[in-house]
């Protein structure tokens, strides 16, 4: 197998350079992560791997803001920069930082640094709450689960130790026989490194069964399952063991949205998926996702995606055709 050429990668800004050029080992480790992701992708897209929950992502061009739903995951960037907007919060992350999402969050994301010569490259590791809890109990045996909810996403600095663990996890793709034995250990180490970082308290909540984040996560799961049904706040509050006003406050703290706003985002995202995948008109899609008024659906769809349903889908299909062509 050829050895990686550990040329210094292109970094996004002065903070990136200060963080990684202060030590040659970190620069070499980051360069190896760039080489590994490039070699295991080779073209733009998100690629599953033989390591459970690990995906590699490559993009050679910047994007306009895109509305999407992020699932719980850790994103460690090797090259390029992305911005994620959640409510009034903005999260910018690149090679000196990592992004963690602890619940399903409707966000607006934009890739702001990428090019054919220096594509955006990252690894995405899905979160396993049971494993997070195991690591947390080792780190903090007397952990309490009644903590206040925190925002369901954060950015933190990527330590040299965390970066090293990330590289070792991706390296396993070259030795598939080692994956069942070593991948769980490295994933635990990644969780541990994040837990010991500056946003460790927020990360720990993901694994605690009674924490604010975990209770809101159960409510989110119900909303996503029954998105086409009317929203019953009292029922959701009972599920979270909260009063309705407490649920509203905690839900907005975690997601930056009220439960009703969250439901609307999920419905509109699903409607867009249906319109792309099936031959539906806007009214059919509206009814399928729970809207009673097609006109209200069209207004809210245009407000979120920038165009009415049919125009938006036509634009998306034209963009896809151009990329394929």
TrEMBL record:
Q: Which ranges of the sequence are coiled-coil?
A: none
Does the record bear NADP in its keywords? no
Outline the extent of the HTH araC/xylS-type domain: 217-315
Ordered alphabetically, the record's keywords are:
Transcription, Transcription regulation
One Pfam assignment: HTH_18
* Keyword Transcription regulation on entry: yes
What name does the UniProt record give this protein? Transcriptional regulator
- The species this protein was found in: Paenibacillus glycanilyticus
């Amino acid at each position: 197998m050829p050895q990686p050429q550990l040329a210094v990668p292109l970094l996004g800004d002065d903070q990136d350079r200060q963080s990684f050029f202060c030590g040659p080992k970190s620069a070499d480790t980051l360069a190896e992560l760039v080489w590994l992701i490039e070699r295991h992708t080779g073209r733009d897209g998100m690629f599953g791997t033989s390591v459970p929950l690990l995906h590699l992502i490559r993009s050679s061009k910047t994007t306009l803001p895109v509305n999407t739903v992020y699932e719980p995951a850790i994103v460690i960037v090797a090259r390029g920069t992305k911005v994620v907007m959640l409510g009034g919060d903005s999260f910018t992350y690149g090679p000196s930082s990592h992004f963690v999402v602890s619940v399903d969050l409707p966000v607006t994301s934009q890739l702001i640094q990428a090019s054919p010569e220096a594509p955006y490259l990252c690894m995405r590791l899905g979160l396993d709450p049971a494993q997070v809890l195991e690591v947390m109990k080792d780190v903090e045996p007397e952990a309490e689960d009644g903590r206040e909810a925190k925002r369901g996403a954060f950015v933190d600095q990527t330590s040299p130790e965390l970066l090293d663990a990330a590289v070792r996890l991706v390296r396993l793709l070259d030795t598939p026989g080692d994956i069942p034995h070593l991948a769980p250990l490295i994933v635990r180490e990644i969780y541990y490194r994040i837990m010991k970082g500056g946003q460790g308290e927020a990360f720990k909540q993901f694994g605690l069964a009674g924490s604010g984040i975990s209770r809101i996560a159960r409510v989110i799961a119900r909303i996503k399952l029954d998105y086409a049904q009317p929203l019953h706040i009292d029922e959701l509050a009972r599920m979270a063991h909260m009063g309705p006003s407490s649920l509203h406050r905690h839900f907005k703290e975690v997601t930056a949205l009220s439960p009703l706003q969250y439901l609307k985002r999920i419905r509109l995202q699903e409607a867009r998926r249906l319109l792309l995948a099936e031959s539906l008109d806007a009214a059919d899609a509206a009814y399928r996702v729970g809207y009673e008024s097609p006109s209200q659906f069209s207004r809210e769809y245009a407000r979120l995606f920038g165009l009415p349903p049919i125009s938006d889908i036509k634009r998306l299909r034209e963009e896809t055709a151009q990329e394929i062509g």
